[in-house]
Amino acid sequence: MVESKFYNKKQPKENNFKKYINRFITKVLLTVIVTLLLLIGFKMNLDFKTNFNKYVYNTSLPFTDVKTLYDKYFLGTEENNTKEVFNEKLVYKDESMYEDGVKLTVESNYLVKALNSGIVVFIGDKDKYGKTVIVQQMNGVDVFYGNVKASVNMYDYVEEGSLIGEVIDTNLYLAFQKEGNFIDYKEYLK
């Protein structure tokens, strides 16, 4: 009877290990298949090579699309991490047009939350925006959070409402870009 209890306790660990091995083998096989297909395409067809190079070097890589596919096919529904998020809306005293977006007057040390879920694709200085964090949202819109001391790292996935950083003074600059063109901020501040 003791052996059966021990066997039952050990069973879930074995199943998890089998799932891990199956996922690993699947990932390796998919990588090999994609690599072989690309090599065959390069060898067989000059147009394929030209089109591939044009797409890779002239098009912005949609990290959010890659994450969506990865979550769907490799993670499934097993990963359920909970994170603290802000429940409040964006609070500001005044808004005015600024460059390609908007300048919001906020409280000193204001904590900036993510307006929508996405992936951090840039952290650094931008002309006229100062220290900037750019989040590529799941809806394809890049949001520039300017004049912000970042609390995130490059390629972090941020949920809607999670902390992006802290405003350096009382000005928060926001700009919205889709497919290389800046778009009107008003619909995103509702």
How does this structure look, described?
By secondary structure, this protein is of the alpha+beta class. The chain folds into 2 domains: 2-59; 94-188, Glucose Permease (Domain IIA). Helix content is 36%, strand content 30%. It is built from 3 helices and 11 strands; from the N terminus they run αααβββββββββββ. The protein has helices spanning 2-44, 46-58, 63-75; strands spanning 94-98, 101-105, 111-113, 118-126, 130-137, 141-146, 148-150, 157-158, 163-167, 171-178, 181-183. The strands form 2 sheets. Strands 1, 2, 4, 5, 6, 8, 10 and 11 form an 8-stranded antiparallel beta sheet that branches. Strands 3-9-7 form a 3-stranded antiparallel beta sheet, with no helix packed on it. A hairpin with a 3-residue loop joins β4 (118-126) and β5. The radius of gyration is 22 Å and the shape is globular. Mean pLDDT is 81; it is low at 1-10.
